[in-house]
Specification:
312 residues, alpha/beta, Arginase, Chain A, eight-stranded parallel beta sheet, two-stranded antiparallel sheet, 9 helices, binds zinc ion, HDACs, hydrolase, Histone deacetylase domain-containing protein
């Protein structure tokens, strides 16, 4: 098997975030993340795939099906004349204050990421080989009508919708980012053709600061260690198999690793080898979509370990 990697054009979409009280802090969601992950993926045997001419048009159409009109309009045109950014609680997840500003570069960057997710899904559906949308900004905190947590458009759900348009009737989304994919969870609610399973930290002081147990949600209240983490990933995949899914989207977050500035766990980068092995053992068409992962020193090794297994 070949793991195909799709990388959108580089952007500086999110130079800062805003803390409660208004202080601006430099974003850890930086372009260097992508450079290091790409190095690791290629070293692990993955190959770069070019974008397709119609990916952006398709991504925009699917974004319109996944998200509300007001949200998309705000991302496109929400920054007032003369300003560089806007911070609007009206588009925050329920119960949260907005901490992620919309800057002028957000819309093209978010749409570029969604287009790469579309391309990766098309490669998977049409070639029968796995693909990896190596995107930023990430997407799993973006809900039907909100953005936040560095996320604007839900790339994973857009990838799942693409797989469905290519013939998969039920698609499972496995989210192994440190943080609960609250946006993805909300996007799939009430849709029997999509299933969501997540392994994440359920500590109340981790974004998105609320955890209500439910089907498919495998939260760890403290560091699960490698064996505990892999057991939870196995449970999440078993849950999705029980939903009779025909294809998988995997939201990959390397912020589960030791040293991540947004995480608290102790996992080594190599854990992504067995994670990928558990996924490939399902023998389902699979699209990997980049979510978090901000500890720069760990990214290359984690991506290499994943690619080595996903390319077998
Ligand atoms: Zn995360």
């Amino acid at each position: 098997m070949t793991l195909h990697v799709v990388v959108p054009q580089e952007s500086e979409a999110l130079p800062f975030t805003v803390e409660p009280g208004g202080a601006q802090v430099a974003s850890k969601e930086v372009p260097e993340r992508i450079h290091r992950i790409l190095d690791g993926l290629l070293d692990g045997g993955a190959v770069l795939a070019p974008p397709g001419a119609d990916d952006t048009v398709r991504a925009e159409r699917l974004a319109g099906a996944v998200h509300g009109k007001e949200l998309l309009e705000h991302l496109r045109h929400g920054v007032p004349e003369g300003a560089d950014s806007v911070l609007d609680d009206a588009f925050a997840a329920p119960g949260l204050e907005q901490e992620t500003p919309v800057t002028r570069g957000v819309w093209p960057a978010a749409l570029g990421a969604a287009a790469a997710a579309v391309r990766a899904a098309l490669l998977t559906a049409r070639r029968g080989e796995p693909a990896y949308a190596l995107v930023r900004p990430p997407g799993h905190h973006a809900g039907p009508g909100w953005y936040g947590g560095y996320c604007f458009l839900n790339n994973a759900v857009i990838a799942a919708r693409t797989l469905q348009e290519e013939g998969a009737s039920r698609v499972g989304i496995l989210d192994v980012d440190y943080h609960l994919g609250n946006g993805t969870h909300a996007c799939v609610q009430g849709d029997p053709t999509l299933a969501f399973a997540s392994v994440h930290s359920s500590r109340p002081d981790d974004f998105p600061y609320a955890f209500e147990p439910g089907p498919g949600l495998f939260g760890a209240g403290s560091d699960p260690g490698p064996e505990g983490f892999l057991a939870l990933v196995g449970d999440a995949l078993s849950y999705l198999r029980g939903q009779d899914v025909e294809a998988l989207v995997v939201s990959v977050g390397y912020d589960v690793l030791a040293g991540d500035p947004h995480g608290s766990w102790s996992l080594a980068p190599e854990v992504f080898g067995p994670v990928a092995a558990l996924v490939t053992e399902q023998r389902l068409p699979t699209v990997f979509v980049q979510e978090g992962g901000y500890g720069l020193p760990s990214l290359r090794g984690a991506a290499r370990a994943l690619a080595l297994e996903a390319s077998r």
